[in-house]
Amino acid sequence: MRPPAGPAGVSACGVFDLWRTVFYRFTVGQTADSDMITAKLIDAVYEAGAIPELWPRAFEEIGRSFGTAGGLLFVVSEAGMEWTGGGGVADYFPSFLAGEGMRLNDRPQRLIGMRHMGFVADFHTQAEIDSLPMYTEHLAPLGYCYPAGTAAPGLDGTTFVFSVEGFDSLEAARAAVPALDQLRPHFARAASTSAQLGVARAKATVEALATLGAAAAVVGRGRRLVAANEPFERELGGRIFDRRTGVELFDATAGARLRETLDRIDWGHKAGCSIALRGKEEAKPAVLHVAPMPGRARDIFSGGLALLTLASGRDRPLLGDGVLEALFDLTPAEARLARALAAGETLGTASAERGVSIETSRVHLKRIFDKVGTSRQTELIALLRDLSASTEQTA
To answer: Quick one: which H or E segment has residue 347?
Structure first.
């Protein structure tokens, strides 16, 4: 995947190189007394800040440096919580999050409530660790009783929570705090820039569609409007509303379907939908297409869940003119195959017309699945047709 653009058109790699030059000069010398804080580790953190998909790798490096099971990063906002992580703890955490253990877990609230500008290891006493069900039933069997964590404020009321998991003992976690405190400013800077780049990526997505005259927006958890282009903003106040409670539709039935679809996408379903819109009498017929954000374009920092595109009866299909390449980072060959499948061609027919073997097309299809965030051909076709503003879908 190409790195997202940074401020003033600077690439993410350029941002990373700038950080490495500036922050090494002022901070690496201060951390050289700790064998745990290495240039490679700081590289990994700032590279993750520039390319958010690399946060798991950064936490794996942290785990190797501190002798732990890796770590987790939480992005906490009014809309909810998103997370990423790396190392062994990241493999275990989804089941912990979905089960009783997370309900019993009061460590994030304790950490945020402390308002301590550094890492903390003493969430509970050793006696509590030995007796509380959260530990005895869920964390102790896997060796995750002793973390060190910190909270850092982000933009727009967001809080970043970093947790290094799997120290051997409470004493080991406490002993690592000074080194982790030296790493904390790098964590905070990298996460803040990931957040800025995430919003920038959402804006770039809708602006790419604006060049074709398409009204588009990215919606996040809680139906929060993350980004919208000018054509979409012109629609606000008519059939579509941006309220404190999130994006709403004028028609109650259509609004209920939008809420249900966004909830399903939030739960991990890949299929979107197309919703016929009604509103003021003078408004021309239109359909609102809802599609999941592709792959990691739905990142934990921008909070983008779904792409909304508004198509009227006069609009033309939106799958050509480089749109698939821009939205999903597809190569030209992958985009041609995706358009052919969306048009109803079989994989064999599309392969023959493109002059490639069906094995090559299968390789391209697998890459398309990875980039778009689907796992089956039927899901891919449904998603692409949701994005298309074909007038047949408005009938």
So the answer is: helix 347-354
**Which of 169, 198, 227 lies at the terminal end of a domain, its last residue?**
198
In this structure, of 215-229, 233-247, 248-262, 322-336, the range with the lowest mean pLDDT score is 322-336
Phi, psi of 378 (to 5 degrees): -65, -35
Q: Is residue 185 located within the same domain as residue 279?
A: no
The least confident of 23-27, 74-78, 93-97, 373-377 is: 23-27
Task: For residues 126 and 144, give the distance between their C-alpha atoms in angstroms, rounded to a whole number.
Answer: 13
Summarize the chain as % helix, strand, coil (round to 5).
Answer: 55, 15, 30
20 lies in a domain?
Answer: yes
Give the separation between CA 94 and CA 83, rounded to whole angstroms: 10
User: Of 239, 63, 259, 251, nearest to 163 (Cα)?
Assistant: 63
Count the Cβ atoms, other than its own, within 10 Å of residue 99.
12
- Overall domain count for the chain: 2
User: Do residues 265 and 370 share a domain?
Assistant: yes
Considering only CA atoms, which of 67, 71, 68, 26 is closest in space to residue 44? 71
According to DSSP H, which parts of 4-124 are helical?
12-23, 29-31, 39-50, 55-66, 88-98, 100-104, 107-114
User: For residue 266, what are the domain limits?
Assistant: 211-394
Mean pLDDT of 178-202: 88
pLDDT tens-digit map of 260-271 = 888 888 777 766
